[in-house]
Amino acid sequence: MVTITNLHKQFGNLKVLNGLNLQITEAGIIAILGPNGSGKTTLIKSILGMVLPQQGEIKVIDSKVHKRYGYRQKIDYLPQIANFPSNLKVKELIEMVKDLRGQSTRDKELIQLFKLEPYLDKKLGKLSGGSRQKVNLVLCFMFDSPLIILDEPTSGLDPVSLIRLRELIQQEKVKGKTILITSHIMSFVEEISDRIIFLLEGKIYFKGTVNDLKTVTGEPNFEHAIANILTSNHA
Amino acid sequence: MLKILKYSFYDLSRSRWSYVYFFFYLLLGVVLLFLNNDLSNAVITLMNVIIILVPLISTIFGVMYFYNSREFTELLLALPVSRNSIFLGQYFGLAISLSTSLILGLGLPFIAYGVLQSGAIWDFASLLISGVFLSLIFTALALNIALSNENKIKGFGLAILLWLFMAIVYDGLFLVALVYFQDYPLDKFSLITIMLNPIDLSRILILLKLDISALLGYTGAVFKDFFGTALGTIISFSVLICWVILPVWRIKYISEKKDF
After folding, report:
1. What are the structural domain ranges in chain A?
2. Which residues form a coiled coil (chain B) (predicted)?
3. Residue spans per domain, chain B
4. SS3 string of chain A?
């Protein structure tokens, strides 16, 4: 699904990705974890072609990423910050994204799921942060792409929407899709992910299941296991 | 690209600022035409306003728009759309929206005044054409600044400096050069210097359409000799078109290489 070989990215003097190799072949939910500044978002943005790496190659479903854009048709992406043109109405934004991607969609169902009907005629600038995140989620999930990338999907959501989001992610998994998630909420990651990838200093430090991580670190608690990796490396 | 253009234009056409800009020109046009009976005077006053204001609004509004729509740009970048269509679409959306405010804002009072039947139609047309060119040029320069500077304050500062230089400092330097080298033949030098600044070029192109160009004296004759001919007009417009194409090409170039 995604093949990354020897990826290097540097912003000025700051090395963010340092020879990262990653192969994601199987379907399922994969969490990308790591401390702040470990390169999670840079990795995701490189896959999307928004960040251009200095060195290395990325392939998404047999298509090279560099200087191409057609392959993004097969990716659903949820950005971290949901900020939209404030003069557009929710309905118009959804129509616009549909227009730009040109695929059959299930937007109605998702609007119902997140209870967005009363907001459809409101301008995006007038929405609260949580409602905007819901619009963001609708935009992401309304296409049926084999690869889904979620950058901090839980931010700003109320508990009811959080439960719905979890169900939604599980449904997509059952359809055999690959889902990449970054999140700082460890309980969410532990509950939902099949496998985790732990980034440290621009490389993959650990790859495996949550249980593998607990065994390796000898910590029965997931949050402590993560903390263990960080302290044993940075102590 | 056309889809992005459409949505950018649509977004802007609802912005309060587009209407403020439109009503400003409408008011200015109405006041100048109907409270003052001399059409030529009205065109000159409008020219002075357009020459200064269009570049200022285009640069400031342009920089502001691109900084504000950064998250939206990121949303578009994750969709199967090429970078070219995103940035050129946004550029043309903004430039067309600003030009529309100008054309409609000044056009309506002029039509109401009956300019279509009068001989002044060409004065008026050259006014609008220059205004549209200035909008296209300075929006493109604004986008260049916004794309090259992550820091908004720096971007705004550069945008204002750019405007200040083109609209005021350039003329000052030009004048100093003319006084300093007054013992030398300066007609070629002045022609080239004027050609290199789109604001000066537009001013001369409008002035030469008006009767008052006779008042320019000998210098005016040199200009009339050059800009009045077909060749001069072609060269002037080619320079204006270059002023549009070069910044637009650079937008394309930077946007291909930029990280978001």
Report:
1. 2-234
2. none
3. 2-257
4. CEEEEEEEEEECCEEEEEEEEEEECCCEEEEEECCCCCCHHHHHHHHCCCCCCCEEEEEECCEECCCCCHHHHHEEEECCCCCCCCCCEHHHHHHHHHHHHCCCCCHHHHHHHCCCHHHCCCEHHHCCHHHHHHHHHHHHHCCCCCEEEEECCCCCCCHHHHHHHHHHHHHHHHCCCEEEEECCCHHHHHHHCCEEEEEECCEEEEEECHHHHHHHHCCCCHHHHHHHHHHHHHC
Q: Does A48 touch chain B (CB under 8 A)?
A: yes
B14 vs A: CB within 8 A: yes
B79 to chain A: which residues are within 8 Å by CB?
72, 97, 100-101
Has the ipTM of the complex gone over 0.85? no
Question: CB distance from B15 to chain A under 8 Å?
Answer: yes
Asked if A52 reaches chain B (Cβ–Cβ under 8 Å), the answer is yes
Q: How far is B160 from chain A (nearest CA, A)?
A: 25
pLDDT in tens, B85-119: 999 999 999 999 999 999 999 989 888 887 777 77
**A2-234 belongs to which homologous superfamily?**
P-loop containing nucleotide triphosphate hydrolases (3.40.50.300)
Contact B77 A48 (CB under 8 A): yes
The string of pLDDT tens digits covering residues A33-46 is: 888 888 888 899 99
